Amino acid sequence: MGAGSVRARYLVYFQYLGTDFNGVAAVRGVQRAVGVQNYLEEAAERLNSVVPVKFTISSRTDAGVHALSNAAHLDIQRRSDLPPFSPEVLTEALNTHLKHPAIRVLQAFRVPSHFHARHAAISRTYLYRLATGCPRPDRVPVFERNRCWALQAERLQFWSLEFESQSFLYKQVRRMTAVLVAVGLGALMPAQVKAILESQDPLGKHQSRVAPAHGLFLKSVLYEGLGPTSMQPPRMPSETQYRSHR
User: Fold this and answer.
1) 70 forms bridges with which residues in the sheet?
2) What class does CATH assign to 7-111?
3) Measured between alpha carbons, how far is 93 from 29 in angstroms, rounded to an integer?
4) Which of 54, 138, 196, 216 is the least buried, fewest Cβ under 10 Å from its Cβ?
5) Closest to 161 measured CA to CA, from 238, 62, 221, 222
6) pLDDT tens, per residue, the chain with 246 residues
7) Which CATH class is domain 122-225?
């Protein structure tokens, strides 16, 4: 800690459309790829912290995956003559300096110095969105492109699958969704699903099916006694069923 500075730790909730990013984690070095964390930390540079601000992300998401509400903790050290930012001021300041329109800070909380956004999470909920009834993937409504997995069927209808756990294995939700879809399409039989489950294969060597990243959303990360309890996740456009015109 810098001499004469005061450190404050915050938990921030933020959302993003993952289409333009190489995942949520920062990409370091000279690569052209960029993560959501890069933009968050770039915005935090304008807060004039005594030491650089680093975001510790609660839940990593892959390239193309979205988040209705992810979380991270960060430390801000201000000079001793300046008080810590209030959570409201911090939220407004980060949003003011964010340079990508697909990222938004939702809310911030002051937390103890030992709080850890990843280790303290008691629940994570993912949402996977399916669209059935598209003759071709490019026929999905324009505002749903890159936000659902389009499957062929007779009539356009949207489905939401929710998965909740304290933690998940790598690509676990996308693999589970792919198996459910394969069963629904008749490409997998119950006996084959049983064999996949009994293989206890965390890396998916016996289950190569993986649903596309663009249909997956991190819906929420929960903490004991913390979190935006009064804030409801944004409603998805497809919660109203679309029907094709023939």
Assistant:
1) 14
2) alpha beta
3) 26
4) 138
5) 238
6) 445 568 999 999 999 999 999 999 999 876 778 999 999 999 999 999 999 999 999 999 999 999 999 999 999 999 888 899 999 999 999 999 999 999 999 999 999 999 999 999 999 999 999 998 887 777 888 889 899 999 876 688 899 999 999 999 888 999 999 999 999 888 889 888 888 888 877 656 666 789 999 999 999 999 988 755 434 445 555 444 433 333
7) alpha beta
Residues of the chain with CATH 3.30.70.660: 122-225
Q: Is 62 annotated as catalytic?
A: yes
pTM: predicted TM-score of the whole model, two decimal places: 0.86
Instruction: Give backbone dihedrals phi and psi of 30, rounded to 5 degrees, phi first.
Output: -100, 5
User: DSSP for 75-125?
Assistant: EEEEETTSPPPPHHHHHHHHHHH---TTEEEEEEEEE-TT--TTTTEEEEE
Q: Is residue 179 a contact partner of residue 210, using CB atoms and an 8 Å limit?
A: no
In the three-class reduction of DSSP (H, G, I as helix; E, B as strand; rest coil), residue 179 is classed as helix
Residue in 20, 62, 75, 201 annotated catalytic: 62
Residue ranges matching CATH 3.30.70.580 in the chain: 7-111
| Residues in CB range of 197: below 8 A, 6 or more apart | none
The answer to whether residues 18 and 100 touch, using CB atoms and an 8 Å cutoff, is no
